[in-house]
Amino acid sequence: MSFPARLVYLDDNNRTERSRSLGKLVLSMSMSLDGFIAGPGDSPDNPFGDDGQRLHAWLGDGGEDPPSYRPADEAGRTVFDELLATGAVITGRRTGDYVNYWGGDHHDGVPIFVPTHQAPAGPTPGNVHFVTDGIASCAAQAKAAAGERDVMLHGAYTAREALRARVLDVLEIQLVPVLFGDGRRLFDDPGSDRVELDLVRTLESPGALLLRYEVRYA
Amino acid sequence: MSFPARLVYLDDNNRTERSRSLGKLVLSMSMSLDGFIAGPGDSPDNPFGDDGQRLHAWLGDGGEDPPSYRPADEAGRTVFDELLATGAVITGRRTGDYVNYWGGDHHDGVPIFVPTHQAPAGPTPGNVHFVTDGIASCAAQAKAAAGERDVMLHGAYTAREALRARVLDVLEIQLVPVLFGDGRRLFDDPGSDRVELDLVRTLESPGALLLRYEVRYA
Prior knowledge:
2 copies of one chain form a homodimer.
Chain A: H1 3-13, H2 17-20, E1 25-32, E2 36-38, H3 74-83, E3 88-91, H4 93-98, E4 112-115, E5 128-131, H5 135-146, E6 151-154, H6 156-164, E7 170-176, E8 178-179, E9 184-185, E10 195-205, E11 208-216
Parallel strand pairs in A: 1-6, 1-7, 3-4, 3-6, 4-5
Antiparallel strand pairs in A: 2-9, 7-11, 10-11
Helix pairs in contact in A: 1-5
């Protein structure tokens, strides 16, 4: 891969502080007030679980491609546009498999990194990279690929792995005003370490409260 | 008890819309972003669980009485003052037992109602009423006692019972910027019904985001 090379290029030729700093690893998830990010019974045919689309009602009414879901309101657009300005995507294996890795192109052809224990046999769609040596390596590769831009992370299990490995920088949570009652939780890792957060931005979208937290590891 | 009588009095003598309307049943809980309202290992000697005080850091540094915890900031005071202006308190049996029912006086001597399967033997502290015929009856009695004022509800199990019985009107959640990782959850009722909420107020306190949701039962 040429990603580390690009970093070296920046270091050698562009010595301002700003251009040398890497972007952040940003988790983006839409979560009900009671902590669910999918309804019960999620599967490849039902990727959000039963009525799980409720959690994504803050987005616009898009089609196949993620960029087609741009919200109509300003707050929603602000967050959405930031996410689609990221320079790489990390997705969990489950999420990725469910949506066939967006055909290899989540947005703008940026590389998609997938932490996994074993890469699948057969051809890899588009710009998808399976990373088998752990989440920290996956995060480092994605950040190198993104350069100064942020990296978007999606997936509950992968988010928890990134927290454990202390490589997650930001949580961008779309807090949806509903009690889901059942389904798949974002934070479901009993006995994990306590992690302090800084709430750095609150935006009110008609369909969700858009909360940006920076992670403060002890 | 004289509470229903007071309601009749209002109905007979004070026929404006406003004076006839009862207050709301308002759940107030401080919750981590990952949904916990107490640390692990809560007990009478450790009522908030391990390091559970973290969740109440948005409050002031009070003493024995709830009113002594008035926060220093305006947003925190707004919510705190509303809660201490309630005309009755409902508390779960666990919470109540842990704190000995605040000696029978949570604030201003308002009555304290405790839904329970069996009232304890022996004398009842102060103005505490054990209600054994269900959460709906408990809510009705507390509302009647409070008149036009709201009723404050505290306790995770009791909150879930009130939601199931469709008697909870408002959730006032102090969303604390921390991932607790473990402990007791506010919403832990797998398979419960989905409940839509309206976010009606967002206040930013230095220690927590103060969110007020009205419940919309289907």
